[in-house]
Amino acid sequence: MATILVVDDEPKITHLLDEELRDDGHEVVVANDGDEAVRLIAAKRIDVVITDLRLGRTDGLEVLRRAKKADPSVVVLLMTAYATVQTAVAAMKEGAADYLEKPLNFDKLRLVLERSLESRKLAAENRRLREKVRAGDVGADSMVRGRSRAMAAVMALVEKVAPTEATVLLTGESGTGKEVVARAIHELSARRDQSLVAVNCAALSETLLESELFGHEKGAFTDAVERKLGWFEVADRGTIFLDEIAEMKPPTQAKLLRVLEDRRFHRLGGSEIIEARARVIAATNRDLSREIHAHRFREDLFYRLNVFPIELPPLRERQEDLGELCDHFFERAGYRGPGMHAQAQEALAGYDWPGNLRELRNVIERAVILAGTGPITKAEIHVPERRSIPPPIAAPATAEIEAAAAATLSEQEERMVRDALARAGGNKSKAARLLGITRRALYGRLEKYGIDAEDH
């Protein structure tokens, strides 16, 4: 359903529209004059504006212009008791979706509203697809899943968590494709028709990052010459991806923690409380347990983010996928040549890829530029000589690796549960909140590890 702003200087009409639209399941906001409508448009995300044409100093056409300036995709329906061809044409030129005559026919209103919202949804989907193409067609449909067990395990987790509202923490070395996985989670979720906003926490100073995340009011600081919406507000019912979360400074970490706990925030320099409805996916290439131990990352924020952790494997641990990944990057680079020689393939397979997928993509793009339409030989593959992978005989068996990893994860989880209970004084509800899980999930872990809450 939609968030609808109803604007009319006759309270009977706004009250009637409010009741009818709420009965249809919409969220309704009411303004009794044009100035109030303009303030609401600037402060709140609006899907549809239904406004009277004659409102006094700020009329319906001005409300239409302001609404379109704030959000070009907003649906605006103008209503009046004085319909003329000239006013209808003027309204359409300004971007009105339709024109309604008073007294209103509510069946017609519902039909016009349904049609307009469907058109808006299709336009949003077209924009999303165009952005996807411009971004290199990344996401669930284009992820190279490969044949490796490591990536099969990652995709199984992605498909389980995507339909939920759980906060996700992506970890792994730099260049392993964390943003691609974040986009896949978004596209497989019920939020796929809304925005995914990616924020690189390492690219902004502390003050600027806070302003970018939460927005600011005019005059909040020296350069704040006008109100600015933050990324949480822009993402709204979509997803916000916080990349390099470990680079965030402690004061901003504290404010992010409050947003995750209360699901609300206010802009810098402002007092208006804004709901935080965006789903959060965070990512880091650092070991957060070490960052916590070094007092660089808040432990309570870690618990809030680590609701559903997914660790991405480095490329050296998914060598079976190398051929499929190369084909993917060849296609993205527009390669139309006969293919790659065996020696070139051997050079790629004999390297351990410290830069992971990002490094492989760069190597392939360079090779395509050098080869043109010809074959790709070893001469076009620019990698250091034989940074080879340890021979399989020296490595532990796969089953042993998986058992060790499972044991390590279980030990870490048990420590987290015991620590949360201790900090909560044995209070299970408080411990569950600290861990960012439900009481039922906490009981499952207590039973799993044989923990008695009364001992804490």
Written account of the structure:
The chain is α/β, with parallel strands linked by helices and 456 residues long. The protein has four domains: 125 residues, Rossmann fold (3-Layer(aba) Sandwich), CATH 3.40.50; 163 residues, P-loop containing nucleotide triphosphate hydrolases (Rossmann fold, 3-Layer(aba) Sandwich); 72 residues, Helicase, Ruva Protein, domain 3 (Orthogonal Bundle); 58 residues, Arc Repressor Mutant, subunit A (Orthogonal Bundle), CATH 1.10.10.60. It is 47% helix and 12% strand. The protein has 18 helices and twelve strands. The chain has a five-stranded parallel β-sheet, with helices on both faces. Strands 7-8-11-6-12 form a five-stranded parallel β-sheet. Strands 9-10 form a two-stranded antiparallel sheet. It is globular.
The N- and C-terminal alpha carbons lie at a distance of 46 Å
Q: Got a strand count?
A: 12
Q: What is the C-level CATH assignment of the largest domain?
A: Alpha Beta
CATH architectural label of the largest domain: 3-Layer(aba) Sandwich
Instruction: Outline the low-pLDDT stretches.
Output: 132-138, 391-398
Helix coverage percent = 40-55%
> How many domains?
4
Lateral arrangement of strands in the main beta sheet: 2-1-3-4-5
CATH topology heading of the largest domain: Rossmann fold
Q: Describe the largest sheet.
A: 5 strands, parallel
Query: Which structural class do the helices and strands define?
Result: alpha/beta
The tally of helices reads: 18
Residues in β-strands, percent = 5-15%
What is the name of the CATH superfamily of the largest domain? P-loop containing nucleotide triphosphate hydrolases
**Apparent shape:** globular
Question: What is the radius of gyration?
Answer: 27 Å
**How confident overall, as mean pLDDT?**
84
Give, in order, the helices and strands: EHEHEHEHEHHEHEHHEHEEEHHEHHHHHH
